[in-house]
Amino acid sequence: MGFALRPASCGVGYGLETAKLLLDVGFDDLGRHRVWGARSPFDTAFARTVEEAAGMVEEGTIRKHVLKAGKWRDSVVHAILDREWHGPLSNCAAGGLCVRWCRGIRTDAIGLILAVTVASL
Predict the structure, then answer these.
(1) 10, 14, 29, 82 - which has most CB atoms within 10 Å?
(2) What DSSP element (H or E) covers 10?
(3) What are the sequence ranges of the domains in the chain?
(4) How far is CA 60 from the centre of its chain?
């Protein structure tokens, strides 16, 4: 899974709610066995969000696989298995992003979602 928020939307819980929404879609709607995502090693806020709040586990580093601004960069992989998922969105904050996939994603509130990839093994 992957997503990005507008800078103005950061730090208010939308990342957590978006991660939980995407995990809910992956497990409950699509029936996946495993959902994973990758992040920059420098994105510690995302690491806290997916590990502590969404229950994902850091699995390791993919070395020098993304070419950005002329430099090869690492990515850190996080994943969660269906048996570890405690969804659906049970911890939505009041007035937060508590919408189901079929209703669409409120991009006005959470920012622009650039990519969503749900994979299973």
Answers:
(1) 14
(2) none
(3) 7-110
(4) 16
